[in-house]
Description:
By secondary structure, the protein is an alpha/beta fold. The chain has helices at residues 21-30, 47-56, 88-98, 101-113, 120-125, 136-145, 152-160, 175-184, 201-213, 228-241; strands at 6-7, 35-36, 60-61, 64-71, 74-81, 188-191, 218-223, 244-248.
Amino acid sequence: MHLLNxxxxxxxxxxxxxxxPEAMAARAxxxxxxxxxxTDHDELGGQHRARDAAHALGLDVLHGVEVSVTFAGxxxxxxxxxxxxxxxxxxxxxxxxxxxxxxxxxxxxxxLAAVGIEGAYEGALxxxxxxxxxxxxxxxxxxxxxxxxxxxxxxxxxxLTEGHPxxxxxxxxxxxxxxxxxxxxxxxxxIAHPARYRFSPTAEFALFxxxxxxxxxxxxxxxxxxxxxxxxxxAETALExxxxxxxxxxxxxxxxxxxxxxxxxxxxxxxTPVWEALEHRIQRAPRRxxx
Length: 291
Ligand code: AMP
Ligand code: MN
Ligand code: MN
Ligand code: MN
Protein backbone atom coordinates (compact mmCIF):
# COMPACT_ATOMS: atom_id res chain seq x y z
CA MET A 1 0.00 0.00 0.00
CA HIS A 2 2.81 2.34 0.86
CA LEU A 3 4.33 2.36 -2.59
CA LEU A 4 1.04 3.15 -4.27
CA ASN A 5 1.52 5.67 -7.07
CA UNK A 6 -0.79 8.28 -5.57
CA UNK A 7 -0.83 11.80 -7.03
CA UNK A 8 -3.09 13.85 -4.77
CA UNK A 9 -2.51 17.41 -6.00
CA UNK A 10 -3.17 18.60 -9.57
CA UNK A 11 -5.02 21.29 -11.55
CA UNK A 12 -7.23 21.50 -14.64
CA UNK A 13 -8.76 24.30 -16.74
CA UNK A 14 -11.40 24.56 -14.00
CA UNK A 15 -8.74 26.57 -12.12
CA UNK A 16 -5.25 27.42 -13.43
CA UNK A 17 -4.23 24.24 -15.25
CA UNK A 18 -4.17 24.06 -19.06
CA UNK A 19 -5.69 20.57 -19.51
CA UNK A 20 -9.38 19.67 -19.12
CA PRO A 21 -10.40 17.33 -16.28
CA GLU A 22 -10.81 14.57 -18.92
CA ALA A 23 -7.33 15.19 -20.37
CA MET A 24 -5.89 15.16 -16.85
CA ALA A 25 -7.53 11.79 -16.14
CA ALA A 26 -6.09 10.40 -19.36
CA ARG A 27 -2.62 11.72 -18.51
CA ALA A 28 -2.79 10.31 -14.98
CA UNK A 29 -3.79 6.86 -16.30
CA UNK A 30 -1.10 6.97 -19.02
CA UNK A 31 1.53 7.91 -16.43
CA UNK A 32 0.68 4.96 -14.18
CA UNK A 33 -1.11 6.85 -11.40
CA UNK A 34 -3.07 4.41 -9.19
CA UNK A 35 -4.93 6.94 -7.03
CA UNK A 36 -5.55 10.44 -8.34
CA UNK A 37 -6.99 13.69 -6.96
CA UNK A 38 -7.82 16.75 -9.04
CA THR A 39 -7.46 19.65 -6.59
CA ASP A 40 -8.49 22.82 -8.42
CA HIS A 41 -8.12 26.10 -6.52
CA ASP A 42 -11.29 27.07 -4.60
CA GLU A 43 -13.50 25.15 -7.03
CA LEU A 44 -15.22 21.74 -7.24
CA GLY A 45 -16.65 22.20 -10.75
CA GLY A 46 -14.36 19.60 -12.35
CA GLN A 47 -14.89 16.81 -9.83
CA HIS A 48 -17.65 14.79 -11.51
CA ARG A 49 -16.00 15.09 -14.91
CA ALA A 50 -12.65 14.00 -13.48
CA ARG A 51 -14.15 11.00 -11.68
CA ASP A 52 -16.18 9.83 -14.68
CA ALA A 53 -13.21 10.10 -17.02
CA ALA A 54 -10.90 8.36 -14.53
CA HIS A 55 -13.36 5.54 -13.92
CA ALA A 56 -13.71 4.92 -17.65
CA LEU A 57 -9.94 4.32 -17.63
CA GLY A 58 -9.96 2.10 -14.52
CA LEU A 59 -8.39 4.77 -12.30
CA ASP A 60 -9.43 5.29 -8.64
CA VAL A 61 -9.91 8.86 -7.40
CA LEU A 62 -10.28 10.93 -4.29
CA HIS A 63 -12.32 14.07 -4.78
CA GLY A 64 -10.22 17.13 -3.93
CA VAL A 65 -9.87 20.87 -3.69
CA GLU A 66 -7.10 23.36 -2.81
CA VAL A 67 -8.43 26.16 -0.62
CA SER A 68 -6.73 29.59 -0.52
CA VAL A 69 -6.28 30.75 3.08
CA THR A 70 -4.72 33.80 4.71
CA PHE A 71 -2.75 32.97 7.87
CA ALA A 72 -0.48 35.45 9.68
CA GLY A 73 -0.52 37.74 6.65
CA UNK A 74 0.61 35.03 4.20
CA UNK A 75 -1.29 32.98 1.64
CA UNK A 76 -1.40 29.33 2.70
CA UNK A 77 -3.00 26.53 0.68
CA UNK A 78 -5.03 23.79 2.34
CA UNK A 79 -5.82 20.71 0.26
CA UNK A 80 -9.04 18.85 1.06
CA UNK A 81 -9.04 15.16 0.07
CA UNK A 82 -12.02 12.81 0.00
CA UNK A 83 -14.57 15.64 0.15
CA UNK A 84 -18.13 15.29 -1.10
CA UNK A 85 -18.13 17.58 -4.17
CA UNK A 86 -21.84 18.29 -3.65
CA UNK A 87 -21.54 19.42 -0.02
CA UNK A 88 -23.49 22.69 0.30
CA UNK A 89 -21.44 24.31 3.08
CA UNK A 90 -18.12 23.59 1.36
CA UNK A 91 -19.57 24.86 -1.94
CA UNK A 92 -20.73 28.08 -0.34
CA UNK A 93 -17.40 28.66 1.41
CA UNK A 94 -15.50 28.16 -1.84
CA UNK A 95 -17.84 30.50 -3.75
CA UNK A 96 -17.17 33.19 -1.15
CA UNK A 97 -13.42 32.56 -1.40
CA UNK A 98 -13.54 32.93 -5.21
CA UNK A 99 -15.61 36.09 -4.90
CA UNK A 100 -12.81 38.65 -4.70
CA UNK A 101 -10.78 37.38 -7.65
CA UNK A 102 -12.22 39.57 -10.39
CA UNK A 103 -11.72 42.87 -8.53
CA UNK A 104 -8.23 41.73 -7.54
CA UNK A 105 -7.42 40.92 -11.18
CA UNK A 106 -8.52 44.39 -12.30
CA UNK A 107 -6.27 45.94 -9.66
CA UNK A 108 -3.38 43.74 -10.76
CA UNK A 109 -3.89 44.95 -14.33
CA UNK A 110 -3.93 48.58 -13.15
CA UNK A 111 -0.59 47.98 -11.38
CA LEU A 112 0.88 46.50 -14.55
CA ALA A 113 -0.50 49.34 -16.71
CA ALA A 114 1.30 51.80 -14.42
CA VAL A 115 4.62 50.25 -15.53
CA GLY A 116 3.63 50.26 -19.21
CA ILE A 117 2.03 46.82 -19.59
CA GLU A 118 -1.38 47.58 -21.09
CA GLY A 119 -4.37 45.27 -21.49
CA ALA A 120 -3.29 42.63 -18.96
CA TYR A 121 -6.80 42.01 -17.61
CA GLU A 122 -8.24 41.27 -21.05
CA GLY A 123 -5.02 39.43 -21.93
CA ALA A 124 -5.18 37.18 -18.87
CA LEU A 125 -8.89 36.51 -19.45
CA UNK A 126 -8.05 34.88 -22.77
CA UNK A 127 -6.25 32.12 -20.82
CA UNK A 128 -9.01 31.60 -18.25
CA UNK A 129 -11.11 28.42 -18.43
CA UNK A 130 -13.42 29.37 -15.54
CA UNK A 131 -14.40 33.06 -15.36
CA UNK A 132 -14.70 32.86 -11.55
CA UNK A 133 -11.15 31.67 -11.23
CA UNK A 134 -8.88 34.27 -12.79
CA UNK A 135 -5.50 33.78 -11.08
CA UNK A 136 -1.96 35.07 -11.16
CA UNK A 137 -1.08 32.05 -13.31
CA UNK A 138 -3.27 33.39 -16.14
CA UNK A 139 -1.50 36.77 -15.98
CA UNK A 140 1.83 34.94 -16.01
CA UNK A 141 0.92 33.00 -19.17
CA UNK A 142 -0.22 36.21 -20.88
CA UNK A 143 3.03 38.02 -20.00
CA UNK A 144 5.12 35.11 -21.30
CA UNK A 145 3.18 34.77 -24.56
CA UNK A 146 3.29 38.53 -25.16
CA UNK A 147 7.08 38.47 -24.77
CA UNK A 148 7.39 40.49 -21.53
CA UNK A 149 9.15 37.61 -19.72
CA UNK A 150 10.78 34.37 -20.89
CA UNK A 151 8.92 32.04 -18.47
CA UNK A 152 6.23 32.05 -15.79
CA UNK A 153 8.72 31.89 -12.90
CA UNK A 154 10.34 35.13 -13.99
CA UNK A 155 6.90 36.76 -14.31
CA UNK A 156 6.20 35.89 -10.67
CA UNK A 157 9.64 37.11 -9.60
CA UNK A 158 9.43 40.43 -11.48
CA UNK A 159 5.73 41.30 -11.44
CA LEU A 160 3.40 39.13 -9.37
CA THR A 161 4.92 38.79 -5.90
CA GLU A 162 5.03 41.20 -2.98
CA GLY A 163 6.86 44.44 -3.75
CA HIS A 164 6.28 44.16 -7.51
CA PRO A 165 3.87 46.13 -9.74
CA UNK A 166 1.23 43.44 -10.42
CA UNK A 167 0.96 42.25 -6.83
CA UNK A 168 -2.27 42.97 -4.94
CA UNK A 169 -2.61 41.76 -1.35
CA UNK A 170 -5.75 39.71 -0.82
CA UNK A 171 -7.70 38.26 2.10
CA UNK A 172 -8.59 34.62 1.44
CA UNK A 173 -10.50 32.20 3.72
CA UNK A 174 -9.61 31.72 7.38
CA UNK A 175 -7.63 28.61 8.31
CA UNK A 176 -10.25 27.29 10.73
CA UNK A 177 -13.06 27.81 8.23
CA UNK A 178 -11.19 25.99 5.44
CA UNK A 179 -10.44 23.02 7.70
CA UNK A 180 -14.05 22.87 8.92
CA UNK A 181 -15.53 23.11 5.41
CA UNK A 182 -13.33 20.21 4.29
CA UNK A 183 -13.91 18.08 7.37
CA UNK A 184 -17.66 18.80 7.31
CA UNK A 185 -17.75 17.55 3.70
CA UNK A 186 -16.30 14.20 4.79
CA UNK A 187 -12.76 15.09 3.75
CA UNK A 188 -9.35 15.29 5.33
CA UNK A 189 -7.45 18.61 5.43
CA UNK A 190 -3.78 18.71 4.38
CA ILE A 191 -1.32 21.63 4.51
CA ALA A 192 -0.08 22.08 0.92
CA HIS A 193 3.63 22.61 0.09
CA PRO A 194 4.55 23.92 3.60
CA ALA A 195 8.19 24.69 2.81
CA ARG A 196 7.06 27.30 0.26
CA TYR A 197 5.75 29.76 2.83
CA ARG A 198 8.08 32.45 4.10
CA PHE A 199 7.26 31.95 7.77
CA SER A 200 9.59 32.39 10.71
CA PRO A 201 10.01 29.18 12.75
CA THR A 202 7.55 30.65 15.30
CA ALA A 203 4.87 31.40 12.69
CA GLU A 204 5.36 27.97 11.09
CA PHE A 205 4.88 26.33 14.49
CA ALA A 206 1.72 28.42 14.97
CA LEU A 207 0.40 27.31 11.56
CA PHE A 208 0.86 23.62 12.34
CA UNK A 209 -0.46 23.93 15.92
CA UNK A 210 -3.58 25.86 14.92
CA UNK A 211 -4.17 23.59 11.93
CA UNK A 212 -4.16 20.52 14.20
CA UNK A 213 -6.34 22.30 16.78
CA UNK A 214 -8.94 22.99 14.05
CA UNK A 215 -8.95 19.30 13.06
CA UNK A 216 -6.38 19.29 10.24
CA UNK A 217 -4.88 15.81 9.71
CA UNK A 218 -2.21 15.84 7.02
CA UNK A 219 0.75 17.58 5.42
CA UNK A 220 2.28 17.37 1.95
CA UNK A 221 5.77 15.99 2.24
CA UNK A 222 6.47 15.16 -1.42
CA UNK A 223 5.48 18.01 -3.78
CA UNK A 224 7.10 19.86 -6.68
CA UNK A 225 7.74 22.82 -4.37
CA UNK A 226 10.04 20.86 -2.02
CA UNK A 227 13.73 20.15 -2.40
CA UNK A 228 14.99 16.87 -0.96
CA UNK A 229 16.16 18.54 2.30
CA UNK A 230 12.74 20.23 2.58
CA UNK A 231 11.05 16.84 2.14
CA UNK A 232 13.12 15.47 5.00
CA UNK A 233 12.35 18.46 7.21
CA UNK A 234 8.62 18.12 6.52
CA ALA A 235 8.78 14.39 7.21
CA GLU A 236 10.12 15.29 10.68
CA THR A 237 7.41 17.92 11.11
CA ALA A 238 4.73 15.36 10.14
CA LEU A 239 6.01 13.01 12.85
CA GLU A 240 6.30 15.83 15.40
CA UNK A 241 2.67 16.88 14.91
CA UNK A 242 1.26 13.38 14.34
CA UNK A 243 0.19 14.22 10.79
CA UNK A 244 -0.47 11.88 7.88
CA UNK A 245 1.78 12.41 4.86
CA UNK A 246 0.57 13.36 1.39
CA UNK A 247 2.20 13.22 -2.03
CA UNK A 248 1.26 15.30 -5.06
CA UNK A 249 2.91 16.75 -8.16
CA UNK A 250 0.91 20.03 -8.21
CA UNK A 251 0.91 19.53 -11.98
CA UNK A 252 -0.60 22.49 -13.89
CA UNK A 253 0.59 22.31 -17.51
CA UNK A 254 2.88 20.35 -19.80
CA UNK A 255 6.22 22.15 -20.11
CA UNK A 256 5.45 24.49 -17.21
CA UNK A 257 5.31 22.26 -14.15
CA UNK A 258 8.44 20.97 -12.46
CA UNK A 259 7.04 17.49 -11.83
CA UNK A 260 5.08 15.48 -14.36
CA UNK A 261 1.73 14.09 -13.18
CA UNK A 262 2.38 10.78 -11.40
CA UNK A 263 6.16 11.03 -11.66
CA UNK A 264 7.37 11.99 -8.21
CA UNK A 265 9.46 10.52 -5.40
CA UNK A 266 7.98 8.05 -2.89
CA UNK A 267 7.10 9.16 0.61
CA UNK A 268 9.79 8.47 3.20
CA UNK A 269 8.96 4.99 4.59
CA UNK A 270 8.39 5.83 8.23
CA UNK A 271 5.43 8.11 7.52
CA THR A 272 1.78 7.06 7.38
CA PRO A 273 0.32 7.95 3.96
CA VAL A 274 -2.81 10.03 4.01
CA TRP A 275 -4.65 7.53 1.77
CA GLU A 276 -4.57 4.88 4.54
CA ALA A 277 -7.03 7.07 6.46
CA LEU A 278 -9.15 7.70 3.34
CA GLU A 279 -9.92 4.12 2.23
CA HIS A 280 -13.67 4.69 2.73
CA ARG A 281 -13.60 7.92 0.68
CA ILE A 282 -11.89 6.50 -2.41
CA GLN A 283 -14.13 6.50 -5.50
CA ARG A 284 -13.23 3.10 -6.95
CA ALA A 285 -13.31 2.47 -10.67
CA PRO A 286 -15.53 -0.43 -11.70
CA ARG A 287 -13.25 -3.47 -11.98
CA ARG A 288 -13.31 -5.29 -15.27
CA UNK A 289 -14.20 -8.98 -14.91
CA UNK A 290 -11.17 -11.27 -15.31
CA UNK A 291 -11.07 -12.81 -18.79
P1 AMP B 1 -3.42 33.06 -7.10
O1 AMP B 1 -4.32 32.01 -6.44
O2 AMP B 1 -4.13 33.86 -8.13
O3 AMP B 1 -2.69 33.90 -6.10
O4 AMP B 1 -2.32 32.25 -7.91
C1 AMP B 1 -1.49 31.31 -7.26
C2 AMP B 1 -0.94 30.34 -8.26
O5 AMP B 1 0.16 30.91 -8.92
C3 AMP B 1 -0.38 29.09 -7.59
O6 AMP B 1 -1.37 28.14 -7.39
C4 AMP B 1 0.62 28.61 -8.61
O7 AMP B 1 -0.03 27.88 -9.62
C5 AMP B 1 1.12 29.89 -9.23
N1 AMP B 1 2.42 30.34 -8.69
C6 AMP B 1 2.66 30.91 -7.49
N2 AMP B 1 3.97 31.23 -7.36
C7 AMP B 1 4.57 30.86 -8.52
C8 AMP B 1 5.91 30.93 -9.03
N3 AMP B 1 6.90 31.47 -8.33
N4 AMP B 1 6.13 30.46 -10.27
C9 AMP B 1 5.14 29.92 -11.01
N5 AMP B 1 3.86 29.83 -10.58
C10 AMP B 1 3.58 30.29 -9.36
MN1 MN C 1 -2.04 27.05 -9.18
MN1 MN D 1 -0.75 25.73 -3.95
MN1 MN E 1 -1.78 23.54 -6.38
